[in-house]
Structure formats: structure tokens, C-alpha cells
Amino acid sequence: MDEWLGIFNVKLRHMREDIQSIETRNNKLEVQSVNNKALIAELDKLVERFRFPSEYASCLTGSQFDEASVPQYVEACEWLTNALHGLEVPNLDSTFANIRAVREKRAELGILKATFVRKASEFLRICFATLVDFMINDKNYFSQRGQLKKPDHADLRYKCRTYARLLQHLKVKMQIKSKSPLLCLSHSNNFVTAHSQILDGNCLGPLRKAYCSSLNSLLRREAHEFANELRASTKVSKTPNTGLETFTSGNQSANNADTSAVSDAYAKMLTIFVPLLVDESSFFAHFMCFDVPGLAPPRDESGSYDADDDDDDDDDDDDDDDDDEDEDDDDGDDTNNVDQGSRPVHDNDSKAGKNSPDLLALNEALQDLLDGIQEDFYVLVDWAYKIDPLRCISLYGVTERYLSGQKSDAARFVRVLLGDLESKISMQFSRFVDEACHQIERSERNARQTGVLPYIPRFATLATRMEQYIQGQSRDLVDLAYTKFVSIMFVTLERLSQVEPKYAEIFLLENYAAFQNSLYDLANVVPTLAKFYHQASEAYEQACQRHLSMIIYFQFERLFQFAKKIEDLMFTISPEEIPFQLGLSKMDLRKTLKSSLTGVDKSIAAMYKKLQKNLTCEELLPSLWDKCKKEFLDKYDSFAQLCAKIYPTETIPSVTEMRDLLASM
Questions:
Q1: Would you tell me which of 48, 252, 563, 613 could form a disulfide with 639, CB atoms 3.0–4.6 Å apart?
Q2: Where are the residues of the annotated region Disordered (predicted)?
Q3: Separation CA 482–CA 106 (nearest Å)
Q4: Residue after which a domain boundary falls, among 51, 71, 90
């Protein structure tokens, strides 16, 4: 029995081993079958990625580009981008990445990409140049004689929008769904996916330069023609550029000439071209795919932003306000147009933009795009200066207002342009101020030390006009001019007074009085002139004091010299001892009183005549005579008090008697 059981166990063990072997083989076959199916599926997917759709083959391999087929090129470009993207890790399993077929396919697509990029770049460069050349050769795009033409780039932008999606595939983009202003340029507000794969980012550099070069030629031509016609259509009489010599009573027609049309013309130039340049900068930044956070989307001609428009071409095509009347409407509210084309950059966006690698490239490109346009603005400033140098004041204020409105990164070069214009205007106005100051200095050579110098009333007339021209932030410019003018006037006045010291005080007081009289109204409203008014007032009082003291001492020298001796001795000896000093006895006092106050009415009359003798401004005589009488009474009162203290027993004419005598004369 045991033997039989042993045989059965052996056979059972062999049977179990055979069954296990069969099961293992079956499992391996099943796994192999599953793996084969999975491999076939993966290979099918890989082969699908290798498939080159025939509809894109002609676009990508064709010898020439056709503008009408640009949408097909964009679709082919998207397929090529996705195909290259699909053959890269992690979109492709790393196991397949190094397969020879994959490497060969990747190389094939790379060659296709290089060929397509080269053809696309050449096509776009030619298109940019052709579009701009067509506009430049058509005179209807520019201002002509008798007709100011507002630049209209609607057709140009419409054409550019056609190529926007094509350009987008030449620039790296993050894999994120976004409503990009760039995509809106291609007439689509749909959400799209822009892949991180690029065709060739290096080709954008030459394309940007080509676009900048072409558009720069157009913008410079537009600015040149507009500025020329603006000057030709502005009718205004020219005021002589002779500084303070202009502002004389005999030249009132020149002084009153209305040159406001000059400021209006300059403001119109800024109203038209500053928003245009900002918009072109912003459009360029988006069209050429610069990654600068915080950029304002480019506006269309109706004033709205491209990023919010479904179809801008309908709005753009009808914007043909060419005649002067429409231009005047545009200029009617230039304050509201200051911020056109630029929106504030948020703090975070601004910080990110400053660190953006594309910001430097954008700044360099904008320099190429807008360089040279400033020349026509400079010509306009020079033209305004030749007509009326004082118009620089209003031009400066207008420029500052536009400058303060430009905030976006795309407006950087426009800010530079406006800043340079400000410097140019300031330099021209400083030139006018310097010339006027030189005229004041030259007048010193021929001026006579008598009467009011001619530049005193002329300056008042000049200041009145300057105040009329102040706009915005030009107050500092005018105040600086006032400081230069008045400083050189006062210095020259003091130097002239030293030519003949005998008449110095009369000369000074007459001129300082004239300065105060002519600037009284302005000094009440202009702080800078108020400061100089008070300075002139102090100088006038000092000159009066010196002159009146000289006249009084001339007539009553012995009397007041006697008083001065007493005052000097009072510092060293007691008052009781003074009458016993040599020359200060009671007898000496009586002699002094007799010689000085005998016929005092005649002495006072002589004082009046002497005051009147060399005075050329008769209107000053009453006030000066009142000051003279008061000064004499003050001095006589001091003398009387000294006599009462030192010579109590002596009798002298009282102050009241002297006051009554002066009042009667």
C-alpha cells in the first residue's frame, strides 16, 4: 500500500509541475499579448505624430508665400509647432525620444522649420516695406497745402493684424490659456493655447528692425508734412526778438500782437502726434511679441483698445477727418487727449517690467522706431521762438502737461521726446533771457545817471506779458527768468549810481520807486515779484534816508554837529560836566542856535529847493518832502531833548513851534 501511495504522490507531483508550467507559459503569453497590444497602440500614436498632413505640405514646402493664403500658413505653422512640441520630452516618453525614427523625424521637422521661418521672415520683411512704401508714395495720406491731414494708420494696422498669428509662432509663449491682445489683433477673441515651443525666436530681431525702419520713415514723413502745413496755415504777425528793447511805449503794436495761434499750433502738433506715437509704440510692442508686463493694449482709431474689440477694421476704415475744421475739433480738448494710448502700470507690473529681459530690447526698438521724429518738433519750437520768444512759456506748460500723462513702458521714448522738447524750449527761453540781460548790461555804457532807466518800465511790461502766457508748470521757468532779470537790473543800477556819487542817492531812489510803482499790481499776485518788490522798497528807504540826511545836514550842519559832540561826550563824562567843555559852553550853544535858527524859514525853503533841484520825477517830491520834514523834526526833537538835559536853563525854539513852521510852508 505504501509503495502504491508513493507512486501516486510522484505522479501527482509531476502533474502539478506540468500544470504549473502550463499556467506560467499561458500567463507569459497573455502578458506578451497585452504588451504587444499596448506597444502597437503606442507605435500607432508615434506613427500618427510622424504623419505629415497633405493640406499643410504645400504650405510648408512651397517656394513662395501668398498673402491670400496667410490663414493657411498660420494653420500649418500651428501644426508644425505642435508636431515639434509633440516630439519633445515630457510630451513624448523618454523611451521613444532617442529612437532613430524619432530623431530622424525631429531633424526633418527642424529642416522644415528653418525653411519655413526663412521664407516667412523674408515675406514679412517685404510686406512691411511694401505697405509703407505704398502709403509714402500716396500723397493723400499726408498733409497738403491748405489741408491738415491727421495720420491714419487703419489700413496699415489691418494688414498687420493679418500677420499677427504668424508672428506669434516665432516667439516663445508659456503654455497657458489667455486672452492675449496679440491674438485679438488677428480678429479672434477666442481663448487659445500658445505653446512653449518656438519656431525660431532669433528671427524676430531682423523682423523688428525691418518694421521699425519702415514705420519710422512713414512717421517722419507724416510729422514733417504736418508740421510744415501747420506753420504755413498759422497766420500771425512776428514780434521783433529784441528782448527788453521791444517793450517800449512806441512799440505797443508789437507788444499787443496776438501770437496765441503759435501756441495753438504747437498744442495741435502734440495733440495729434503724442497719442499717435504712444499708440504706435504700444501696438509695436504687442505686435512684435515683447514680454513686458503692464503694457497698455494698442488702441484703434476710435479710441478703444484692440484687446476688447471683436473686429476693429469696421471702425478704422471710416476715420477720415482730414480737413482743418476736424483738426480744430481734435484740438478742442487737448487735456483729455494727454493720456491717450497709455494706461497706468500697476506697481507689481512695473517692477516685473523693469526686470523683464525684453524691456531693454523694446527700448532699443522704440529708439529705432521713433528716432528722428523729434526734429520736426524742434523746428516748430524754433519757429515759435522766432515769432514770439515769450511763447516759450506756454509751450513749456503744454509740453509738461503731456509729459506728466505718459506712464506706460511703451511710452518711454515718447517721454524722452517730450523731455527733450522741454529742454529745448527751456534753452530757447534762457537764450531770450540772457540776451535781455546783456542788453541791460550794455545799457550801462551809454546810460546817464539821471532819471529812471528805460529798462525799469520795460521790465514791468515784459512781466505783464509773461504772466499772461503761463500755463501748467511753467511758473518755475518764469520765476527763474524774473530772478535773472531783476538781479542784473539791481546790480547794474548800483554800479551806475557809483559813477557820480553826488547824485547817487537821487538816482537810486527814483529808480527803486519806479520799480515799485510799475510792479505794484503784479507783486500782489506773484510771490517772486513780491520778494523783489520788498527788496526794492528797502533799498528805496535806505536811499531816501541817506539823501534826506545829506540835505538836512547841508542846511543845519552846525546845529546837528553840536548835538553829535554832546552825544559823544556823554559816553565818557557826566551831563553836568559837558557845559564846561571847550566849544560846548552855554555861550557856544547860543551862538549855534543863532547861526542855525535865525531865518530858519529860509533854511527850510532852501532845503525844499535843494530836494527839488535834481529830482526828475516830480511825482516823488510831495512824499519826499514829507519824509524830509519828518526826518528834520526827529533830529530836532533829539537835539531839543539833549539841550533840556544838558542846558536846562537855556531856552530854544520848541519842537511844536518848529512843527507848525514846517506845516505852514
A1: 563
A2: 230-256, 298-356
A3: 75
A4: 51
Furthest-apart CA pair in the chain: how many Å?
185
Which three-class secondary structure state does DSSP give residue 194?
A: strand
The grid cell for 208 is 523688428
For residue range 72-82, list pLDDT tens digits in order: 777 877 887 78
CA distance 469 to 391: 7
The candidate with the shortest Cα–Cα distance to 528, out of 455, 460, 475, 472, is: 475
Q: What is the pLDDT of residues 93-128, one digit of tens each?
A: 787 778 888 888 888 888 887 777 787 778 888 888
Residues in the chain: 665
Q: Which residue has the higher pLDDT, 104 or 327?
A: 104
Average pLDDT over residues 204-214: 84
Q: How far is CA 251 from CA 24, 244, 432, 461, in A?
A: 121, 11, 18, 11
Q: Any bridge partners for residue 144, and if so which? A: 147
Confidence at residue 292, expressed as pLDDT on a 0 to 100 scale: 65
Q: What is the pLDDT of residues 527-544, one digit of tens each?
A: 999 999 999 999 999 999
> Is residue 403, in this structure, part of any structural domain at all?
no
The one-letter amino acid code at 288 reads M
Q: Residue 43 corresponds to which cell in the numbers above?
A: 507605435
* Residue 553, domain member (yes or no): yes
> SS3 string of 145-186?
CCECCCCCCHHHHHHHHHCHHHHHCCCCCCCEEECCHHHHCC
Q: Please give the grid coordinates belonging to residue 3.
A: 509503495
Give the CA dihedral 365, 367, 369, 370, nearest 10 degrees.
160
d(CA 140, CA 574): 103
Angstrom distance (rounded) from CA 28 to CA 22: 10
648 found inside a domain: yes
DSSP labels for 418-477?
A: HHHHHHHHHHHHHHHHHHHHHHHHHHHHH--SSS--THHHHHHHHHHHHHHH--TTTHHH
Residue 382: how many other CB atoms lie within 10 Å? 12
Exposed (0-12), middle (13-18) or buried (19+): which is 19, by Cβ within 10 Å?
Answer: exposed
Q: CA 120, CA 62: separation in Å to the nearest integer?
A: 11
437, 485 contact by CB (below 8 A)? yes
Cell numbers at residue 405, please? 500723462
Q: Give a yes or no: residue 3 inside a domain.
A: yes
Backbone angles phi, psi at 192, to 5 degrees: -130, 160
Q: How many CA atoms lie within 13 A of 141 on its CB side?
A: 20
**Given the C-alpha cell 538816482, which residue does it identify?**
507
Quote the pTM value: 0.72
Q: What angle do CA 204, 210, 211 make, to 5 degrees?
A: 85
How buried is residue 329: exposed, middle or buried, by Cβ count under 10 Å (0-12/13-18/19+)? Answer: exposed
CA pair distance 359, 355, nearest whole angstrom: 8
Whole-angstrom distance, CA of residue 590 vs CA of residue 400: 76
CA distance 411 to 399: 15
Q: Total domain count for the chain?
A: 2
Residue finishing a domain among 32, 51, 70: 51
**Domain membership of residue 590 as a residue range:** 545-664
Q: Output 350-353 pairs: Cβ under 8 A, ≥24 positions apart.
A: 350/294, 350/409, 352/293, 352/294, 353/292, 353/293, 353/294, 353/295, 353/409
